[in-house]
Prior knowledge:
Blueprint: E1 2-6, E2 9-16, E3 19-28, E4 36-40, H1 53-71, E5 76-83, H2 92-105
Parallel strand pairs: 4-5
Antiparallel strand pairs: 1-2, 2-3, 3-5
Helix pairs in contact: 1-2
Amino acid sequence: MQFGSVDGFLYVSRITGPTHNLLQLKLSKVPPSALRCDELHATGACNQGKLDAAKIQEAVKLGVASANAALGTEFYAFHIRYVANDSGPERVYGLLAEVLVSKVAAGELEVE
């Protein structure tokens, strides 16, 4: 996995053989009034079917909550970006969100 930040988003990129996922996430310490979710343009010729934005949102919320419970932190997702032609299943994005929160909690990434 690769981690970093771009345009105010934290990101994690995961490539395992034929599957690939990119999650860009903005976190806050204050509960947001809404969770925004944007689909980034498809890249390459891969076409694994359309991901369900609502399922990604739910998975990310669960992943952040799971990390918070395990780490004693209080972070909230308020903006998600993912690539249109990335691999499913959507629940993978919850695992990626959990890893991002753990990186922030460990001081390896910073929330803007």
